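ok so for the tutorial part 2 we go from a plain amino acid sequence to predicted structure tokens. step 1 is just haveing the sequence, like this:
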Amino acid sequence: MTCEDAHLSMHDYISGELAAEHYKPLMDHMDECMNCQEFFRQTAHIQTTMRDFMLYEAPSELQTAVSSILANA
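step 2 — the prediction. this is what the tokens look like for a chain of 73 residues:
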């Protein structure tokens, strides 16, 4: 597995969508590649941070404004 392949697989792994046959090659590559280990750490952190921010509800004024814009589109 190349680093490029690993980077593509990491997103699926983090989201729980990685096909079973790709798991071992990814883990084997990560065991040996420090650059991919760091890329994985950063990618997981970014995805976790984004997921956490999505838990907040927009203010009602913003929701109303967006709904109005979409209704008139």
